[in-house]
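User: For my dataset I need records formatted as: sequence, then structure tokens, nothing else. Please produce one.
Assistant:
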Amino acid sequence: MPTRTRVLPALLMGGFLLSLHTPAALAGEQEGLLEEATSYKGTPYVYGGTDPSGFDCSGFLNYVYDSAGVDLPRTMADIYNEADSIEHEEPAAGDLVFFETYQPGASHAGIYKGEGEFIHASSSNGVSVDSIDDPYYWEKRYIGAGKVLEREQAEQNVLAELPEGKFTDVPEDHWAHEAIAKLSREDVLSGYENGEFRPDEKMSRAEAAKVVTAVAGIEAANRPSYPDIESDFWAADAIAGIEEEQLLDIEGDRFEAEKAMTRGEVAQLVARAYDYRDKRAELLFSDMEEDSVMAAEVAGLYAAGHVNGYSENEYRPDQFMTRAEIATLIHSIEFK
């Protein structure tokens, strides 16, 4: 069985913090990025590949930019949407250059080296260097460039100016400000690298597992048995703790780490972790049956004053729970 220790460890949700950049440091990052990219020249193309044994297009970009502390999305469409578009000017070394190849929109990209050359994971030649001005292929497919290194610098300048526990999207009059600020100061929850907390975003099962098992002091003795959770997955220990203590009823044999948590699932997870189940409590919500799998958990949390329903006398167990709502629930239990 897992052992429990009462701790409030640092949990970074949604990214990691980078050091502040100066222009000289940014130039150094560009040079380091290109050296890293060039070191993989000749690596074969592998569909879905994300490491030096074989890269696909976006896998190569993710791996190289990660060396500079830049966390890119996995898909090409998301990378294109996240990069700051460069209009009416030439790309600089370290910028992304995008191409429309096998489908409309950005479907391929590489890292600009300068003098019209870019390095990329080509499906025909693996990691190689080509010219944007190649009239036979790349020139007519080039659709633009985008910056990510300078964007990171701007985001970190915002972070440097934010007081501890503050986020750009959680003003003092926000209904969850106290809970979010407190949990941030206690290093239980952090925001994203651009200074946002994103209070209205859904929280995944993996994120919720990491937070709840950490603040409840649950440590797993074994690895998780779910076939979709690798042993080196960032939340594997937390998921193992949930599995061993049976804190969450999972349908089927897959944990589905990225699936968003519902209000019912969060109530089940938190109530079981903190021993708030109360089978004797009167269940007051019209949209829940007393014999439902999470009735005792919701009833126990409600009786203790940690959760509320809606004006229609509903709990809405199937509604997704946001980061702000989960922060408020944890704050209510830990700090009130």
